[in-house]
Each structure stands twice: as C-alpha cells, then as structure tokens.
Design goal:
Length: about 280
C-alpha cells in the first residue's frame, strides 16, 4: 500500500506538497491541492481540518505557485452539524476571497448530496467566483441539478466526474455504459451553457471527444480545462499542455494517505484495479 501511495500522494506535509506543485507548474500544469481527511468525529478534529485548509491557502499565496484547493465538507464537521460546517466553510472562503483564490467543494456519497447542495447554494451567493462544486455523472438526478445551477447562477464552475462511490441502483446508473453516456451528456450541456467546465477524466475517449466537441462548437480553451489525478498518466498530462489546453492536476497530501486509499477501495473495489492499471500507464 505504501509503495502505491507514494506515486499518488504528494507527501505527508504541506511543504512537500508545495514542492511538488512547483515542479508541476514548471511543466505548465496547474494544480488543485487536497489535504486528505474526511468523516471527523468531534469539533476539535473539524477545526484542525479547517486550519489545514487555511494553511494551504496561505502557503499557495506565500509560495506563488499556481494552485487552488479542494475539500470534503465531512472533514469540516458536516456530520456533526450543518451550522458547524458552515462556520468553517466561511472561514476558509473568507481567506480564499482575501487571497483571490478558489475552493472546490467535493461531492461525497449520496447521503450527503442534499445538504451539500444547500450549503453550496448559500455559499455561492456569498462568495461568487471563489467557490465551485463537483458533479457526478452516475447519479440519475445530475442533469436536473445542473439545469438548476446553470439557471440560478450567472457563473458556475463545475468539475464534471463520472463518480467513484458505490451507490444503490435506485439513485445511480449501475451500468458503466449508461454512466459514460450521461457523462458526455453533462460535458456537452455545461460547455454549451457558457459556464466554465472542468472535465475530470483519464479516459482517452472522453478527452478526444471533448477536443472534437469544442472545435466543432468554437468553444474557446479559456472556457474549460482537463483534470487528472496526481501520478496518473503524467505524460498524457504534459502532452495536453503542449497542445495548448489547461491541464489541472489534483494533488492530495497528508498523513491520512492510508485512510484515503483504504476508503476509496472499500467504497468501490474497481478503484483498486484503476490504481494498479495506472501504475503502468503513460
């Protein structure tokens, strides 16, 4: 596990992570830093996670690297109370606004989606361009959620993913062919809406389809970016930069690397196969 994690996690300390971000920036890549952690069980842990996020924003600003930040609201006390999570989110977004940076709220499992949407709506109205959201293609509700967000807000920066949690067929497409079809549908929908799209995929089919779609519809490169995980297909990431696309790397770091890997594999065993396959891909 440790050998595998070393490729996909940029160290245990923020200093190590910033060094890796600088190296990625040198190759033309931009970054999203993600301090590992979720599902805290008391207010002390939730505040510690909040402070770690504030430290990330300060370190990005002080170092001058090109990076924003993502977070999971369960790490900020969402399961303890919505009010506690909101308090911590406002602390983080106050800092992001002060430093003119951006925070991406990760979407978690289906049990958290309604409260995540409620919090995001409120924070989006307060903090505007400084906050964005992740949208998962494998959920039946996704298209309706996107239509509402695109209509209610003047600008909507969404990270579009297939989804990595193991969900009930009552709420999510069980067949990967249907997930892929819906994924292309929401990419098309968001690109045509004029909002900013982050296409997060390691799938050549998705990447090539997106390239052809934006050319066909004269969508400027400034309106979208590709995203991949740290350590996954690094040569392909750099090739996309050479082709003139914005390529953002999601860089996790922290001492919860073991929990991070264990939870991802427990949630969906196919994630283990994904990790193993990508240890040998370019």
């Amino acid at each position: 596990m440790r050998l595998g994690a070393a490729r996909f996690v940029a160290g245990e300390t923020l200093k190590e992570a910033i060094e890796q971000v600088r190296l990625l920036n040198n190759d033309g890549l931009v970054v999203t830093l993600d301090h590992l952690g979720e599902f805290v069980f008391d207010e002390h842990e939730a505040f510690a996670s909040t402070q770690a996020c504030l430290d990330v924003l300060d370190a990005i600003h002080a170092s001058g690297v090109k990076s924003n930040m993502s977070l999971k609201m369960t790490s900020l006390g969402l399961d303890l109370s919505k009010e506690l999570c909101m308090k911590h989110m406002r602390m983080i977004l106050d800092k992001a606004r002060e430093l003119d940076n951006f925070v991406r709220i990760d979407m978690e499992d289906y049990a958290h989606i309604d409260v995540t949407m409620e919090i995001f709506d409120e924070l989006k109205r307060e903090y505007g361009k400084h906050v964005g959201l992740v949208i998962q293609a494998y959920l039946y509700r996704t298209v309706d959620d996107m239509k509402r967000l695109e209509t209610e807000f003047e600008s909507m920066n969404l990270r579009l993913v297939k989804g990595a949690y193991l969900e009930s067929p009552k709420v999510a497409y069980p067949d990967m062919a249907d997930v892929n079809k819906n994924y292309l549908k929401i990419i098309e929908m968001h690109l045509l809406s004029g909002h900013y799209s982050a296409v997060a995929s390691h799938d050549d089919m998705v990447i090539n389809w997106t390239k052809e779609f934006v050319k066909k519809h004269n969508i400027p490169n400034e309106q979208f970016e590709f995203q991949m995980l740290y350590g996954v297909r690094p040569e392909t990431q750099r090739e996309l930069v050479r082709e003139g696309y914005t390529m953002r790397v999601y860089v996790p770091y922290g001492n919860d690397w073991y929990g991070y890997f264990s939870r991802r594999i427990a949630e969906r065993p196919a994630n283990a196969l994904f990790i193993i396959k990508n240890m040998f891909r370019k």
